[in-house]
Amino acid sequence: MVGVLVAPDAASIAVPETFARWRRLTPLATWLPIELREASYAGILSGVADALDRVGVIPRQLILLGEGSVARRMLELALRGALPCGGIVAIDIASDMLPFHIVPTVTAIRLVVHRNDDVPQGGLIGALRAADLDARIIHLDLTAGRSAEAAAASATETFVLELVATIGRRTTDGAGDP
Predict the structure, then answer these.
(1) How far apart are CA 112 and CA 4, in angstroms?
(2) CB 112: neighbour CB atoms within 10 A?
(3) Which of 47, 79, 80, 170 is the most buried (most CB within 10 A)?
(4) Which residues does 76 contact at the CB level (< 8 Å), separation at least 6?
(5) Which CATH entry fits the domain spanning 2-173: 3.30.470.20, 3.40.50.1820, 2.40.440.10, 3.40.1440.60?
(6) How far is CA 84 from CA 44, 51, 106, 118, in A?
(7) Predicted pLDDT of residue 157
(8) Is 16 helix (H, G, I), strand (E, B) or coil?
(9) Distance between CA atoms of 145 and 96, rounded to whole angstroms?
(10) What is the sign of the dihedral through the CA atoms of 137, 10, 24 and 77?
(11) pTM for this one?
(12) pLDDT digit of tens for each residue in the chain (178 aa)?
């Protein structure tokens, strides 16, 4: 299952056209918008728990997709061990340093971030690279001529397709039990 976190008054990468394309590309995945009452840590945990209960999916079968500040909070929850899931795709997040130490997790972490030479090497990206995690990062170079939205959607699509295949394999062969 791919759960798309939708926060009140926040833009979403999963616009109807993109969302429909991703659904066609992953016919075996269930796609579910997860409407958050609030974009706080508690709001994310509550929204995800409600969605899992509603559809009867176990956390290791869940891939979460979020954008902006909601995605950053989702990532922080996963890296604290508070948000069990098979994988997350965090789009356009702030890459400043984490305010805590990363807890070991089997959650697959995928980030789509804008290239920013002003961020110190010891920030979020450095911490993820130093940790022993299944983490991949795509840096968007917005000077390459494509619009930010198209570049982010393409990078996100790559990660979503990979995680749907990976999580599907993990949950059918019994491996990767979080």
Answers:
(1) 15
(2) 26
(3) 79
(4) 41, 98, 100
(5) 3.40.50.1820
(6) 12, 13, 9, 32
(7) 82
(8) helix
(9) 26
(10) positive
(11) 0.84
(12) 899 998 877 666 656 677 788 888 888 888 888 999 999 999 999 999 999 999 998 999 999 999 889 999 999 999 999 998 999 999 888 888 898 999 999 999 999 887 655 555 558 888 898 898 999 988 876 555 557 677 777 788 888 888 888 887 766 654 444 4
Q: Cα-Cα-Cα-Cα dihedral of 158, 130, 123, 9, to 10°?
A: 40
Enter the tokens of residue 171: 């949950």
Is the Cβ–Cβ distance between 36 and 8 less than 8 Å?
Answer: yes
**Measured CA distances, 46 to 49, 106, 117 (Å):** 5, 21, 36
